[in-house]
Amino acid sequence: MNIQNRNYIILFLAVSALLLASLIPGGPIENRDFSHIHVGVLGGFNIFLTMLNIGTFALIYWVRKQRRWALTAAWFAGLAYFFVYAIDLAQVFPQSPTPMSQALSLIEVLGICAAVPLMFLSWPYTPFASGSSHYRDFGADGEVREVTPMPTKKLHLVLIAFVIALGIGIILFATDSAINPAIKVANLNH
Q: Any residues with CB less than 8 A from the CB of 154 and at least 6 apart, and which?
């Protein structure tokens, strides 16, 4: 794998993750009212977005290690970012009586602009492009080598538990903020 391509994939993953992280409901940019959407639907959507965002930060590490599965996952992440922003900009989902702010529109357009090159750069490393379903990795010299499994360590388990707890916290906060935006704003003004 070309080191420059790898670095660009990492860059677009990081940009995508940071742009999405800036859109957590209740934050400075995403403050639309979604109280009319069923809490289960909104919660499920927030689970998807949180997994996408946290997973993208994890993918950066694995893409840096040049794991082919991570490059395939990077393509799917780019597709997911593109889809999420496109359906919101097209006002398909989530719909809100509160209009989209200019800042939100700009972030979402920038998100699409990061997703397209991410998909383009990671495509050659997917099994779809090569016609092969074998997942192998690239060595430092660019040669393909077989994957060796990484042993699980206690630190990895603690890190996984922390990320899961963080994700649950984000999901609960985002869902609550999206359902009760007026209450949050009213309480801040007093």
A: none
Nearest to 150 by CA among 47, 55, 67: 67
Task: Pick left, alpha or beta for residue 91 (phi over 0 → left; psi -120 to 50 → alpha; otherwise beta).
Answer: left
Structure tokens at 183: 């209450």
Q: What is the pTM of this model?
A: 0.74
Q: How far apart are the first and last CA of the chain?
A: 56
Q: What is the 3-state secondary structure (H, E, C) of 121-185?
A: HHHHHCHHHHCCCCCCEECCCCCEECCCCCCCCHHHHHHHHHHHHHHHHHHHHHHHHHHCHHHHH
Q: Which two tokens stand for residue 96?
A: 């809100």
pLDDT category at 173 given cuts 50, 70, 90 is confident
Q: SS3 for 180?
A: coil
Structure tokens, 6: 């790898």
d(CA 175, CA 189): 21
What's the CA angle centered on 109, arms 105 and 113, to 5 degrees? 165
When pLDDT is cut at 50, 70 and 90, the band that residue 153 belongs to is low
Burial label, 133 (beta-carbon count in 10 A; 0-12, 13-18, 19+): exposed
Range of the domain at 107: 3-189
Quote the number of domains for the chain.
Answer: 1
